[in-house]
Amino acid sequence: GNCCDSLLNELEHIHCKAARFINRIPKSTNEYNVLKKVKWKPLQHYYKKRISCLCYEIFHKLSPEPLHSWLNKSTQRRSLRNCDQVDIPKFSKVSFKKSFMYRAAVTWNQLPKTCKEKTSLASFKNQLEKENGTVNISYCEGAMRSNFLNDFVYY
Predict the structure, then answer these.
(1) What distance in Å separates the CA atoms of residue 91 and residue 102, rounded to the nearest whole number?
(2) What is the Cα–Cα distance from 90 to 80, expressed in whole angstroms?
C-alpha cells in the first residue's frame, strides 16, 4: 500500500521500455501511446485494482482476521446512501497518506457502488474491469469529497 509516486513512475517507465522492446516500437513514441498500442494497462491500474480487491476481502471479512480492523465501517448513519463507506483514518504526518490503511479507505470509498455490492470476489473483479472502476481513484487532497458529490442523485 505504501508505494510512493516517484517509485511508481520509475516502474511505469520500465514497463513502457519493456513494451517498446518486446513489440519493437520506436523510442520516439510516447509512453501513453506505447501502452495503448500494445493494449497494456498502466501499472497504476494494477496497483489500485489490487488494493481494491484487498479492500473487498477486508470489508466482507474474507481476509485473515488481523486485517479486519484495518477498514472500519463508517459510524455516520445519517445517510443510507453511504452505508458502504469506511472511515478514513486521521493522520498527523504526510507520510501516513502513503500507508495501506489510508489508501485502502480512500480506494474503497471511491469505488463505484455497483462494484461494492457484488456478492463474490470474482464478480467484484469482473465489475471493476467492466466499469473501469480504478481509473478515477485519486489519493490527492479533496478526492474523497469530490467523489461524494458525484454519486448524489437529484430528484
Answers:
(1) 9
(2) 23
